[in-house]
Amino acid sequence: MTLTAPAPTDTSAARSGDIQLSGLTKQYGSSTALNAIDLHIPAGSLTVVVGPSGCGKSTLLRVLSGLETATRGDLLIGGQPVANQRAGDRDVAMVFQDYALYPHMSVAANLSFGLRLQARHDRRSGPSKSEIAERVASVAALLGLDALLTRKPSQLSGGQRQRVALGRAIIRRPQVLLLDEPLSALDSQLRASARAEILRLHREIGATLVLVTHDQHEALSMATHLVVMDAGTVAQSGSAEELFHAPATEFVATFVGSPAMNLMNTIDGAGRTGWRATDAVLDSDTSSPPAGGLTVSGITEMCEFTGDGQQVTVRSGDSTFTLIQRDGERWLRVGDPVRATIPPGRLHHFDTNGHRRNAS
Amino acid sequence: MRAADTTLATRPRRGLGGIAWHLVLAGVSLAMIFPVLWGILTSFKPANEIYSLSPLPAAPTLDNYAHALTEWPVGLLVGNTFVMAAGVAIGQLLIAILGAFALAYFTPRARPLVLTLLTISLAMPPQALIIPQFLMTAKLDWLNTDLGLIVPQLGSSALAVLLLLQHVDGMPVSLLNAARLDGAKPWESLWHIVLPALRPAIAAVTILVFITTWNDYLWPLLVAPRQIDTTVQIGLRQFETAEGTNFGGLLAAATLTSLPILAVYLVASRRITDAFLQSGIK
Questions:
Q1: Full-model pTM
Q2: pLDDT tens across A93-145, in order?
Q3: Complex-level ipTM beyond the 0.90 threshold
Q4: Residue A234: enclosing H or E segment and its boundaries?
Q5: Strands A294-305 and A319-325
Q6: Nearest-CA distance from B198 to chain A in Å?
Q7: Which chain B residues are Cβ-neighbours of A93 within 8 angstroms?
Q8: Which of A117, A161, A166 is the best residue to mutate to test the B interface, defined by the most B CB atoms within 10 Å of its own CB?
């Protein structure tokens, strides 16, 4: 729905790592996985594509990589049309969800596989043996794999496998690095360090990273550019702050941010009004409510302790809303009456089609 | 009751049921092994004991072996058989590797059709094909040649193709995709990624085809009936003479020529068990 600004302003359109999709459609038989997508992925960004399962985000990644060809539409990478280029010729690398390490090759052989093929295909301008060894060493150093180079993938832990997969993807110095749910195979403890690893790598290699996830929390925390997909289309793209504070549609509003944005029908029936759980100010006896806001009230139905506060589900008539309060003096209990006011600047208005109609 | 329920599932079977089960297995094994054992024992019997019902030879002799080794062209026949079995095994393997890889990697539109045709060719009795195959071989002037023994048998590669295809299909798709993104051309994916992963399956298929071909009777009988061109299984008929059959020599020769197969079996018994279990045939 929302079109981002076209090519970046500082250089000509042909900047390395810049990705431009226009009218990109992918159909499998009669079902449409990607529906006329217009999207710009800025060079050097860490773009996170997020959406519920089946929204087309994995298909998007496969079309970018060249593993699938688009049914219609244009795809430019670094200003070059790549629709007719083979997967290996696009200067695009990918980290697979299951890492896809070659099981019978050592870590060093896994890392160097692409370079060795390149050397064989093009003996004149391909990398020499010493250059390959050098690049394996530098990638191993960058990812802390020096001690593991002779091991087989089966002898590695999950986190180590992921680092090998990252290393194998960046060793050819691609313009674009695609990551398909790179954290989903790791346990929650490893995730934080793997996330930091990806962020560090992004800073150091300067390539465009496109990361697909279904975890909106991961998306918000990592993205310099966030793309929310819904049913084969781009619902909104922009910075994480932009999407969080000014969601373009009800879908984006409820998908991005946790807990999901509260939505209620407006009195005139001309759409819905939403607010974030953290934006509600509990009415107390001592302070008067902010003027002009939306006031909601109900009975506390569920309280979840979150450490520094409480996530409270409040029943109001036949609907519920969620709010978060951090006033340790006044913990709410189930059954307590609640009245809260949302300041006018924190309200989001959507029309009957679910599109944003805020002036802000 | 409850105790019995839990132990039945967790402990290996003991007691009466277990004994009965082992008796059945022992009986089946004995039935399988008895003719082989009888043949080996008989090969040590002198001519006058051949029809005796005592299993053990009263006066064991190596005469039969001496006869088989001197009067019978054992080296020539084993050599012929080996060339045929190895040729068919290698040929079928090449077809199966390339066919299975092409079907899995390129997933051609005709893949379901090809699979159906392969399965039909498995269901077709070989006897139904043998006359046209024989006529073609004769027209090519391949009778009594290694080519005639080998090439027509490559037509029955369906089982090998299907067995390998099952293994290629079982590989994670992402492995082949990763190789594509690493810039691997199709044959490089085959050589560097698929073949190493298929090694056990390839070993199993090779052994399976080798043993089946080694034991084949009908085709060499038709194509290479001449004594010097034929295989072990047909050569054994030379012990049937006008004066009657020399069973001692026949069984000695059969025992001798089973040794290569036995050796293959001892080296790779687990692989062979796998191969036969996977193929679903006996």
A1: 0.80
A2: 999 999 999 999 999 999 999 999 999 998 888 899 999 999 999 999 999 99
A3: no
A4: strand A233-238
A5: unpaired
A6: 11
A7: 181
A8: A117
